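Attaching the record inline, Q. Sequence:
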Amino acid sequence: MKLVNRTLDRVVCQRIELARTIWSRTRGLLGRPPLARGEGLIIEPCQSVHMFFMRHAIDVVFLDLDYRVVALRPDLRPWRVTRYFRDAYAALELPAGAVAQAGLELGHHLALEGD
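Structure, as predicted:
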């Protein structure tokens, strides 16, 4: 499955993983190698992210129920916590630098495509 930016008509991630169970949401990226370019993880539901025990920075994009970007937290470093985003439904975790590379901005509409 891939994630596309419908606003810009471009691919954000070639390989997206979904974390929807309590276990997969709790684990997130903990204990995993850094995301490769073109990879991402969507955690839903999720309105805040912590970086406890992480070893590398990531970019975090908060999405509403329609997958519109409601907040951006690029280059979130280990041992940091984002604030709670009331309007968020999901958190998209990407490799550090991916937000800028993809040109993501507030209000952009993202969508999952493929199987």
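The two ends are 5 Å apart (CA to CA). The longest strand covers residues 69-76.

More tomorrow.
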